[in-house]
Amino acid sequence: MSKPHCLVIGVGPGTGLACVKRFANEGYTVNMIARHAGRLETYSNEVSGAEGFAVDIADLSAFRSALDAIVAAHGTPKVVIYNATIATFGRFEEIDIDKFERSYRVNTSGLLVAAQVLSPLMERLQDSSLIVTGNTGSQRGMPKFVGWSPSKAGQRILAEALARDLGPRGIHVAYVVIDAMIDMPFARKRMGDQPEDFYAKPADLAGEIYHVAHQPRSAWSFLVELRPFAEKW
User: Fold this and answer.
1) Which pLDDT band, with edges at 50, 70 and 90, does 198 fall under?
2) Gap between the Cα atoms of 76 and 70, Å rounded
3) What is the domain partition of the chain in residue ranges?
């Protein structure tokens, strides 16, 4: 039997790359989407068999074409992880409207395009998953997150609509809220000297995402929250 196919949309040095590694280790053929071709080449060398496709998701037409190319080359994905995100930080007076709308294209419209292209194919498998990674910005509005939270809230509602529509068709849609500072070099640099308990480990997040993607049909989750045990909430 051929290997199952996993597509990770939005791969960086944290959760995205950890998901690529976890699914590859579990026997999946893994494809990756990110903006930077050089980053994808590095990850392809790091994870045997993982292939990258460079595209800016904000260019929705190019993104749709990339999805078509991936399916043509590797077949229908059994698992799709939508991990793409972009943010602009600042209060409402400071937010550039073009950047605000770009956040919607990447965080929300990109998810819609992925569902439009892939779900009719995934439905034929009768056993597939679309896992969307989010954060607490999708659940509450904070002054300095105006350039991010509205698009993430829209993404969460879109995922819920997809879950209700696609679930009866055999596609498990779940939204994973990561309420944490993820352990990456830039986070360490930004946050300074913090205890290990402060950070969520990408490999652990990927492990839970893998678990959600493989839940039995009689016990599917939709909204899943992940946070370090010491996180205040």
Assistant:
1) confident
2) 8
3) 5-226
The pTM (predicted TM-score) of the whole model is: 0.93
pLDDT for 141 equals: 78
CB atoms within 10 A of CB 191: 11
Show Cβ contacts of residue 195 under 8 Å, excluding neighbours closer than 6 positions: 230
Tokens describing residue 51? 């292939």
User: Do residues 131 and 80 lie in contact, with contact meaning Cβ atoms separated by under 8 Å?
Assistant: yes
pLDDT digits (tens, 9 = 90+) for 180-190: 877 777 777 77
Q: Which amino acid is at 194?
A: Q
Close Cβ partners of 164 (under 8 Å, ≥ 6 residues apart): none
Q: What architecture is domain 5-226?
A: 3-Layer(aba) Sandwich (3.40)
Distance CA(159)–CA(130), nearest Å, equals: 9
Residue with tokens 């039997």: 1
Residue type at 50? A
| Structure-token pair, residue 208 | 């839970």
Count H helices, E strands: the chain? 8, 9
Alpha helices in the chain (DSSP H): 15-25, 37-46, 60-74, 97-104, 110-123, 149-166, 185-191, 202-213
Tell me which residue has tokens 């990756």.
32
Q: Residues 6 or more apart from 139 whose CB is under 8 A from it? A: 153, 156, 177
d(CA 146, CA 80): 28
Please write the tens of the pLDDT for every residue from 47-94. Answer: 998 999 999 999 999 999 999 999 999 999 999 999 999 888 889 888
